[in-house]
Amino acid sequence: xxxxxxxxxxxxxxxxxxxxxxxxxxxxxxxxxxxxxxxxxxxxxxxxxxxxxxxxxxxxxxxxxxxxxxxxxxxxxxxxxxxxxxxxxxxxxxxxxxxxxxxxxxxxxxxxxxxxxxxxxxxxxxxxxxxxxxxxxxxxxxxxxxxxxxxxxxxxxxxxxxxxxxxxxxxxxxxxxxxxxxxxxxxxxxxxxxxxxxxxxxxxxxxxxxxxxxxxxxxxxxxxxxxxxxxxxxxxxxxxxxxxxxxxxxxxxxxxxxxxxxxxxxxxxxxxxxxxx
Length: 277
Fold this sequence. Notes:
By secondary structure, this protein is an alpha/beta fold. It is built from 9 helices and 12 strands. The strands form 2 sheets. It has a 7-stranded parallel β-sheet, sandwiched between helices. The chain has a 5-stranded mixed β-sheet with strand order 8-9-7-10-11. Helix 3 (87-100) links the parallel strand 4 and strand 5 (103-106).
């Protein structure tokens, strides 16, 4: 080895989808400020007024990466794509990721069963990490909910309340649904059969086998989630509140680093954090 040579690893090359959106910009800022990562691509919709602009211009910095709607051009130099967009867009991105051998971190929510199956098919060819919430704290809460549901399986009514900003288009949130899935699985129930998504009028007495959901939309709420276990004489509430999107971005980069050392497969944040059973 020649004198002064370095074995320092090459930075992880990260592309961002939805680059001009709130989450896209937070992701770009996080990548730009991470010494072990490099912004390698920035995607946006064909109608976006941001096309052709430097992706980090909003930070007062020059990255040399221009925002583009050309998927192949935007992904050509990337190791991994981080995608918080819409289901149809994410699936289009995944098809090109598979073609180019680019791994993907998916934070998009609102997928139906057929779309989830399509993601699983892509994951047979490339590494895909998908989670409705990238927050480390939320994923620790999911483990706590599993414990709580198993311990409070009799005599407790379960309600999930979530609140988000006025721009969120899907309800309940993907995180609330994942919380419901964790609780239902711990109780041996099928969430599709026991979920109640709204109550109005004379509903009758509460069915103790159900899991209720309540949704709030307003202002600039980043994301609040509470799971309530209401029993006779006591109430246990497990809550997570977000005041910023920074932890979503940091969790996404943690997932991208995790994927860098993995082969094809469909992973989740429990895998990333070492919480899988």
